[in-house]
Specification:
Length: about 210
């Protein structure tokens, strides 16, 4: 909210990352997975809100920890991949994720913050692990339909483009009407799973997602 006010903007239309992380943690908990590895694909990217929200949704504290994952019980542990941008070489990233999982068998779920890493982890067939990712694409949606990925977090980019135009039109034509009250208007998270993946695919085909 402070950044929005400082910029002079009416509002910010988009996905609050911490909220998206919280929803993911809550969904993992519903699925019976509470010891989660949060994979950060690019060092220095401001994606920690996603991991920290994940920890909050799991109910394991306010932040996702670094270092060693717990051997049993609930936990959220970050793994920052060593390559500058692992999304450009996901297979190399899988080796690091796989090695970490082998060393920490108590982990029962993996949350990736990039779809290329998510589909690569799925392709490596991790045993008895729930896998989810942010930012779905066609491969992610196919994995969800196949049951090899549990869910994906959708920012609903169509709404991110459409709603600002509507908001600005209302502001200009209707006596300065505004929404958001100087904070954000969330367009997500929408969690995509087997129950709604077909609808999302249909929306994409129609250009509405």
């Amino acid at each position: 909210a402070a950044d929005i006010a400082a910029s002079g903007a009416l509002t910010c239309v988009g996905q609050p990352e911490q909220l998206a992380g919280q929803a993911s943690g809550q969904r993992f908990k519903q699925l019976g997975a509470t010891n989660v590895l949060c994979v950060i694909h690019q060092s220095g990217q401001n994606l920690l809100d996603r991991c920290n929200g994940l920890a909050q949704g799991l109910g394991v504290g306010s932040t996702c920890k670094t270092g060693t994952a717990p051997t049993k019980g609930p936990g959220c542990t970050e793994l920052t991949l060593s390559t500058p941008n692992a999304a450009s070489n996901p297979q190399q990233a899988v080796a690091q994720v796989t090695s970490y999982l082998q060393s920490h068998p108590g982990i029962n779920a993996v949350m990736t913050l990039n779809n290329a890493i998510g589909t690569a982890v799925v392709s490596s067939h991790p045993n008895n692990l729930k896998v989810a990712t942010f930012d779905p694409n066609a491969e992610v949606l196919n994995d969800i339909k196949a049951g090899t990925m549990s869910f994906a977090v959708d920012q609903q980019q169509y709404l991110q483009g459409y709603l600002p135009i509507v908001i600005l039109d209302l502001y200009k034509k209707h006596e300065g009407n505004t929404v958001g009250a100087g904070t954000s208007v969330p367009t997500g998270p929408l969690l995509i799973d087997k129950t709604n993946v077909s609808k999302v695919q249909a929306a994409i085909a129609a250009g509405d997602d």
